[in-house]
Amino acid sequence: MVKDMTEGKPIKLIMGFAVPMLIGNIFQQIYNLVDAAVVGRYVGDNALAAVGSTGSMLFFLVAFAGGLSGGAGIVIAQYFGSRQYDKLKKTVVALFYIIAVLTAVSMLIGNLGLDLFLELLDVPVENNVRADARSYMNIMFKFIFGMTAFNALASILRSVGDSKTPLYALSVASVINIGLDFLFVIGFDMGVRGVAYATIIAQIVSALICFVRIIRHREELYLTDIDWKPDMHMIGLIVRTGIPSAFQSCMISLGGMSVQRLVNAAGPATIAAYTASTKIDTIAIQVIVSIGMSLSVFAGQNVGIGNYDRIKTALRQTLVVMVGASVVIAIIVLFTKSYLLTIFLDPEKAGEAIAIGEVYLSIIGVAYVIAGVMQSYQNVIRGAGDVQICMVAGLAELGARILFAYLLVGPLGTLGIWLATPLSWGCGCIIPVTRYYSGKWKLKRIAEE
User: Residue ranges per domain, the chain?
Assistant: First the structure.
């Protein structure tokens, strides 16, 4: 279903679009959540440490493609809002070619540089943590195309207001992933390799569902043989629009790897705690992320027709919802953190890891309000096409996180690493808020190109 956000009540449209996206995002995170729970409970906390110690490495290799998919989504949303469907189709095809090339490059780098990545991340050798990490990532890198393809296809559908197809795809894929996790890990005793195979099969299924929807069932996206001819202007436009987001994503992933290295150096118990806690955090923050993504699509479509007053109203209403949602999420996390951690960790065998995880969740939970404000302003200017400023804001947030983590880890230990995230969110608010009230983001309209 296409959703035109240029007419109707802003907050009703934003929330109506955000809810299916939220459910879809949660299903997408269930891949990793179930993987971690099955590994942690049925293989052990050292195996969980192996899977968790390499997450930033995988994100690094798909970050650039993901950033360009996001950039293409901005262009598509504005063309859709301005009813320029011919240009919309050319943008979709251009994105397909870009993602195909970047996926091939990512697969090559991942497989050839795996041992170097493990060394740079200081993944522990003891208790077979590094050996298991290598087995897991070797499989993930070989089939990385499932992840990059789904991200691109879902971005296309969401940009034209269809958040339900990605939700359906992720729902089906999550069921497959859960079933295969238990079959491969418990039934066939495949350990971390079983988790990897379950994940990549589920990702490929979700990508196929979205692809079929695009090529067969969407009038605005129906592609003829002529449409498949690459348009160099559109490729260039996607690159210009997406490079800042892609670069920002890569820098964020590098920052994540830098912080992960500090965590890895603290030993398997801290790695397991961090892995379990961040899974919970990632699920919890999806409400904020989904509303922000919906606001970005809303802003993109309305910038496409130059309706800036409508965007101002939407931001004001969204901020109220964001703050309220953040408070509710924080309360839930703070009061259930001990129970949530036992989903991934056995209290009888991983008591130290659970205690460390409780501290992390206590700190991060009270900071969700800051994240909500940051996401609101960033997504308005991102949807408007002001991607360079979004990149600068993201890099400022990243730099603050790395700086605080390395400054505080000495005197405070792992507590310093945990505090770095909310402190960096505060720094990340400054640039987008200032940019929004300057009004300069209104000059970044893409749909006229």
Answer: 10-443
